Amino acid sequence: MRIVTHPEADLPAELAAQVVELEEQAWPGNRHGHDPELAPLMMLLLDADGAVAASLALLHKPVRHAGRTYRAAGLSTVVTRREARGRGHGGRLVAAARAALAADPAVDVVLFSCNRPLARFYEAAGFTRLPGAVLVGGTPEEPLATDAPGFDKEVLGDFPAGRAEAAAFAGTRIALHPGLVDRLW
Fold this sequence. Notes:
By secondary structure, the protein is of the alpha+beta class. It has helices spanning 13-26, 89-103, 119-124, and strands at residues 2-7, 41-46, 52-65, 68-80, 109-115, 128-129, 134-138, 143-145, 153-158, 173-175. It is globular.
């Protein structure tokens, strides 16, 4: 197994097709791909044959919060091939993503949401739950928040710039507003 990273726009066609297949397994009928404005970077875990066993996207944008602009990143479309699940592949990829973001001097904060039952999975990779935090995506005119009725989301984060930053995010509403393509990041 090896991890490769490509800007989404430069992902080789064969790998891109495999990523779409994985995402279709997990989220049938959903739109695939990310808003280019979020500088999507794909991280893929390839098996010995070069097939995609797991994938995720790292998205980036400035986020204005608590009177400061943060260089933010987030995880999106984290998925493991159905027949490869339960073998630690997703955890390995998520831990590698966290390490890459922590080493990136252009990232102050990592923020994302997941279905509540998956929070422990992300904590095992080193991310921290942000109690009471709510991510607000979409646009200011058409917001979508992680506390919307019918959602069961948990907000997690990491703070490469320093753990003291966590206090600025816990228990707050965080306006990501990535647009209508990546509605929650």
